Amino acid sequence: FLALKIADVNWQSKLNKAAHHTSDYTSTEVIVRRGQAFNITLNLQTTVQSADNFTFIATTGPSPAESQQTKAIFNLSEEGVSGWSATQAPSEPGCMNFTIFSPANAVIGRYKLKLQTVSGNKVSSTLLGQFVLLFNPWCPNDDVYMANEKERWEYVLNDSGIIFQGLEKYIQQEAWNYGQFEEDILDISLSILDRSLNHRQDPAVDVSNRNNPIYVSRIISAMVNSNDEKGVVEGKWNGEYYSGTNPLQWSGSVTILRKWYRGRYKPVRYGQCWVFAGVMCTVLRSLGIPTRVITNFNSAHDRNINLSIDKYIDISGKTVHLTEDSVWNFHVWNESWFIRRDLGSFYDGWQVLDATPQERSKGIYQCGPASTRAIKEGDVNLDYDSSFVFAAVNADYVTWIHYSKKRRERIYSDTKKIGKFISTKAVGTNSRVDVTANYKYPEGSLKERQVYEKALKLLGVRSTGKKPKTTRPRRRSSLAWRQNMTQPAQKPSISGKLILDASPVIGQDIHLTLALRNLTSDFKTIKVKLRASAILYTRKPKAEILQLSRSVKLGSEEVKEISFKISYSQYKNSLMDDRKMLVTAVCETKKGASLLVEKDIVLQDPFLIIKVFGPTVVHKVVNVQVTFTNPLPEVVTDCVLRAEGSGLLKEQLRINVARMAPMESSTVQFEIIPYKSGTRQLQVDLVCIHFSDIKGFVMLDVAPA
């Protein structure tokens, strides 16, 4: 029996990729999914009578071992101890066909496959090649199995999407290029796992845990931020981004992941929540874990997890920082789909993961996976970080006026403000789907109050008996408390509302009206202090824009309107990189009764018009025309038009726009050559130092060549 001589190995890459739903990966490597067979053909130089003495060895990680499930030794047609097996299929003379089976709980990652043959007492070993093994949402025995084909297409195979932002009353769509199949992205995702703290501490144990989506997704949630282990994105929330990129300017994950990889793992500056979530979605989808992006409007960041967010303002309406708690206009996180062997099948399904570095979990900035079922049922004691996510969608919002160290007055407790319009992109379309009901029972229902009580109890935050974890003034029995939406400390004697006279547009003055109503029959003089500030989406003030004081006389049950404007010249220097503003009015009567009226304003985008000329076909040139307008009453210079889109442009395209006169429209043309068929998202972004980005996108159906 001669030693086996192999001329070459045909990994049947095209057929295997089609069968394993991995054809979209740009890589030439063999990429297959676990729990499913793949085929290889050996073309031989010598003839072999039988393959009975063939042994296959599959290994992954730096120190493969059978005990760690990182090494599998298996012979033909009998299943190995580890669940790997091989069978021989009929073949032409001079070649041998084999089918290799991996178990549905195999470790994911890059494998080497060796063939060992025994001839007499001589053992020879040949490296057949490498392959990458991924999670398999198509396999019923895989922990990430997803039964619905349309959902698998959306949450695993769709490489573009929509991230919702803005305000609960003004929800905006932002396009995002996930690009999980683009060149290098799978390699980068695997290298993210190899750079984690766990891997550095004990590579063998870390790799052996990579069969578990709970473990893998938690590691990724830590690695997408740079806080502990020089992860991918560095967060910054103070409005100054000179030493990096303004988070609002990113429009996809590919540029960020490549920058991190090519820059020798130096964290990419800068990200905010939607950037962390967009990048995490790319990495998890590339590894085969079904993942989506979720936006929670009025999201609580409850530092001490006592389910109460206290906001303090002084009598002029300025925020006083007496607490680390905050309410963000929106916060973006991820959900991934898998079963919870650690918690029990009740908690299977969508799991919350959050890569934005807000709080440490077990010493590291990571968050999740927290089961959405656990959050809905108030099981805040369950792994991982379900209490933090519960607070983000359920905390009460309590407003205080801070007069001095000794005197503060609680003016409202709002039990319905937090956790509104929890949103994600629909399956198969760009419309918004509301998933609030996955997180909580209807506001004000008995069940919702019972869940809230249960959570308070589990967190040890009680208004009776037990001392709460916080030294702050606690509310009365929370059940009574949650029955009213806003409970002023005393019955209000005035009410007020801030009204925008028209949709606010960048470059134009903003006209507002404060409508005040006397709720009682006695005459009142009201001192009004108005303030407008530029804010981040976290509602953290960045710059003061305007302060006004007025005195208003109100007769019995009278309504009066105060009109005022915020001129472009007043806000232009504060809103160059963002378009968010907070207007507050503190109204006080002589008797000391106080009213706070707040309004969040987002200045609207000037439109950007994208025209695509002719049909889009793979490898055929197509012309694109983009028209946009300078929204400002002044000349702007040094703008850049950027375009990107997976399957349309291999790298981001940049075109300089030299000069635009006030209110002038400009048109730019460029060519794209699509390289993938199917529905594609082309994103266009006008970047300028004088105003925040103007973004647009168009969906293209690209026909095969």
TrEMBL record:
The active site is at residues 273, 331, 354. Residues 464-493 are annotated as: Disordered. It is an enzyme of class 2 (transferase). Its cofactor is Ca(2+). GO terms for cellular component: cytoplasm. The keyword Cell membrane does not apply. Residues 464-477 have a biased composition (Basic residues). It holds the Pfam family Transglut_C. This is protein-glutamine gamma-glutamyltransferase. Its EC number is 2.3.2.13.
